[in-house]
Amino acid sequence: MKILICTDGSPTAEMSSTLVAKMGLTANAEISFLGVSEHEDDQSQLVGSMDRMRASLGEMNTDWRTCLRKGSPVEQILAETQENAYDLVVVGWRDDRRLPLLRLGSTAAKLARRIQTHLLVVRKLARVPQKVLFCTSAESPAASTLTQGGRLIASLNAQVSLLHVIPQVAPSGDLVDTAEMAIQHSTREGKHLQNGTEQLRQAGVQGDITPRLRHGLVVDEVLAEQQEGHYDLLVLGAHHQPGQNRWMGILLDDVTDQLLNRAPCSVLIV
To answer: Is-contact 204 150, C-beta < 8 A?
Structure first.
């Protein structure tokens, strides 16, 4: 696996390497550290930041490299991923409420819309992730989300919840309240949750997997589930899907943007 860990020199960005290590992603990985500054004078600070990030990974049985770029963080990260293929890009989240329109969170959101590989956005790191929330639709791209995301979190042995949100309340005669009922009645959503559980197992997930079903607005229900379950990591599907129509892409962009801005935990987009 080839991993790109990015830093702007901030303590928040440096947490990124810590989470990579805690997720067990460094084994047999090729790690690159990318420092991006908008001014030449900041580059010495970035070198120190990358040294600390490398140290936080401990003794790595892996190859690693460092590189510096100057310019817009989004454009420089995208340029690096275009010049060198990566399996995962990792960035930190800095939520500066005094400058809500300029916070680093906007960098993560822009990357999520445009990047062509998996993206891990790190925030509020406190421990090895013990609870992971997968959010999945009942559409065909969900299989890739479950397979790729399952592989990336497999070494955690975490408790996993597989959430599907029904965005509109069904007619009263067809309403299924819980995941257990949906699976028992073999509804479309129940079959999806059951298949999703099997896909996560096939991807290597060893911990408990709990199907979850909620009704309402997608963003509100995902955030409510996160708050109630106190999850450490949120896993979402990527924006770009082959053959996806433009309107659906806009809707997914909006959902991901809102979750990136409002979720209190790290977010993995696959």
So the answer is: yes
Crossing angle for the helix pair 246-262 and 218-229, nearest 10 degrees?
Answer: 30
Domain termination site, one of 98, 122, 146: 122
What CATH number is associated with residue 88? 3.40.50.620
DSSP letter assigned to residue 264? S
Q: State if pTM tops 0.85.
A: yes
Classify each residue of 181-211 as buried b or exposed e, where b means 16 or more C-beta atoms within 10 Å of its C-beta. Answer: ebbeeebebbebbbebbebbeebebebebbb
| CA 104/CA 53 separation, integer angstroms | 19
Average pLDDT of the residues in 148-171 = 87
Total number of domains constituting the chain? 2
Nearest-5° Cα angle at 265, 19 to 251 = 120
Whether 56 and 17 have beta carbons less than 8 Å apart is answered as: yes
State the average pLDDT for the chain. 84
Exposed e or buried b per residue across 93-118, where buried means at least 16 C-beta atoms within 10 angstroms of its C-beta: bbeeeeeeeebbbbbbbbbbbebebb
Residue range of the domain that includes 258 = 131-269
67-123 pLDDT tens trace? 999 999 999 999 999 999 999 999 998 655 433 333 444 688 888 888 999 999 998
pLDDT per position as a tens digit, 3-46? 999 998 888 888 899 999 999 998 889 999 999 988 777 788 89
